[in-house]
Design a protein that fits this description.
The structure is a single chain. With 263 residues, the protein is mostly beta strands. The protein is 0% helix and 22% strand. It contains no helices and twelve strands. Mean pLDDT is 86; it is low at 1-9.
């Protein structure tokens, strides 16, 4: 702003600082890992959950932000205890913002996978004492049970496992009997599949006992959710076809696959 009586010298220019967009709440979940192969009576682990970030009131600036949503780890046939594949990392990057989560470890013989990292901070562990759950965003695995998922109550009814707001649960393991899981992690061959629910970042369960031809459960793909008060205008552009929802006083952008958003 130029006050009365003030002038700008010839040849000088004024560049205003970037405008701040509304404070943004951000969920970033990486893809979960697959469970272990199981070619015999093995104790095998479930896949680790993807890393999870839930941050509120973040400062974004006008510009374009790239959203990467990691795939779930693929299940692989093979000899008993073959380690499951990790999933893909998820991230949101742009002007003054870089948030990155990595996938968890795949399940293996005698142990469950570890949850992935969030901005470089390691997640919860699997279980290693001859039994095998996977890590989960809500806590470490216990025995053959997968680590619990993280419940983000503010997202109930928006997305996540069965629209409950659960994300990044560890896959169940097997040590003679099957473990349990929460939040969309893979468990004992429900409907002929031990894969984790998509867009939860949860880990898959091992293959069925004594099976060298059946794939272990794959990890659930990741997800990114942005939200801010709906009193502010919509983003000027998006790619990747996010689901856009306005409810409960918030405007939501839900990315189930990679894309971008421009403010």
């Amino acid at each position: 702003m130029i006050l009365e009586g003030m002038t700008l010298s010839s040849g000088l220019s004024f560049t205003p600082p970037p405008m701040v967009v509304p404070p943004i709440d951000l969920l970033v979940v990486a893809g979960g890992a697959a469970g272990a192969a199981n070619g015999g009576n093995y104790t095998v682990g479930g896949g680790g959950a993807g890393g999870l970030i839930w941050a509120t009131g973040l400062t974004f600036y006008n510009g374009t932000y790239t959203v990467t949503v990691g795939a779930g780890g693929a299940g692989v046939n093979g000899a008993g205890g073959r380690q499951g594949n990790s999933g893909g990392s998820s991230s949101v990057t742009g002007t003054s913002v870089s948030r990155v989560t990595t996938s968890g470890d795949g399940g293996r013989y005698g142990s469950g996978g570890i949850q992935g990292s969030a901005d470089g901070v390691p997640g919860y562990a699997g279980y290693y004492a001859n039994s095998g759950g996977g890590g989960g965003a809500g806590g470490a695995a216990t025995s053959k049970d997968g680590g619990p998922a993280r419940l983000i109550s503010e997202l109930n009814g928006i997305t996540g496992y069965n629209n409950t707001g659960y994300f990044a649960g560890g896959g169940a393991g097997y040590n003679g009997t099957w473990g349990t899981t929460t939040g969309g992690g893979g468990d004992i061959w429900v409907d002929s599949s031990s894969s984790a629910a998509p867009n939860t970042g949860s880990g898959g369960a091992p293959a069925r006992w004594n099976s060298t031809t059946t794939s272990p459960g794959k990890g659930g793909s990741g997800i990114t959710v942005m939200r801010y008060a709906d009193s502010y205008a919509a983003a000027t552009a998006t790619t990747g076809s996010p689901t856009i929802t306005v409810t409960g006083g918030y405007r939501y952008y839900i990315f189930n696959s990679s894309g971008s958003i421009t403010f």
